[in-house]
């Protein structure tokens, strides 16, 4: 196979009309250029250059090969340009996943601050429940995850980024809205609730808190896949729910939902950043984690 420099030389001879000018354009001596072209001719088994006392010019075969060489060089340039683009993207890329509460209320602020300092940063965010975020992180499909488990997940490095707590909410027309005494863990466990799906941090926090209080929850009234669906169901009068205080702040202000005090059960939880165990965070993931911790 002819080397790329020899193909560039052949193309320049075609474009400039002489070996001397082509050699000068490449910064090599004319005898070296002639020797390189002779090597290409031997490898291809063709006469590419017509050498006469008046000078040198490409033969018809030489012009044909020069045309093909030009296309090869264009493809090589495209390959190198594309590879550089991929390198740039990988240098700038930040893949994150966040549970729904974090993705809605906290992560946008952290990401926005990071982007203000690095406007060229390419960032992809997946919004999943906490179990799914953990799996994506363990499998290396994201660089950094944010979860709301009530306990540290296994197989991952973690760092606390915020705290949160669940509140019990009902519609304004629900009988608990007029209740004078706090609910007990038994009251909560014995009442069918509107809950998030299994694997969500909110559901895991509620279940763990009830277990710690020594009670077992009855079957849920409804099992829904997002905080907004839970809020809307409660506001419509479906039944009570235990949901993140972050998720209901606005609805409490407009009186669509009412909080009900609870005693004898700990509904606090830690919001965590997670990444593959044993991996040191550098670059954009480390910068995002630092911002999240700094906001805490």
Task: Write structural notes for this entry.
- The protein is α/β, with parallel strands linked by helices.
- It has 2 domains: 4-90, Arc Repressor Mutant, subunit A (Orthogonal Bundle); 144-271, D-Maltodextrin-Binding Protein, domain 2 (3-Layer(aba) Sandwich).
- The protein is 48% helix and 21% strand.
- It has 12 helices and 11 strands.
- It has helices at 4-16, 19-26, 30-44, 60-92, 100-105, 107-117, 130-138, 185-189, 201-212, 227-235, 245-253, 283-295, and strands spanning 49-52, 55-58, 94-98, 123-127, 144-147, 156-171, 194-196, 222-224, 241-244, 257-260, 268-276.
- Strands 3, 4, 5, 6, 9, 10 and 11 form a 7-stranded mixed β-sheet that branches. Strands 1-2 form a two-stranded antiparallel sheet. It has a two-stranded parallel ribbon with strand order 7-8.
- Helix 1 (4-16) packs across helix 3 (30-44), helix 2 (19-26) packs across helix 3 (30-44) and helix 6 packs across helix 12 (283-295).
- The chain starts with a helix and ends with a helix.
- The relative contact order is 0.14.
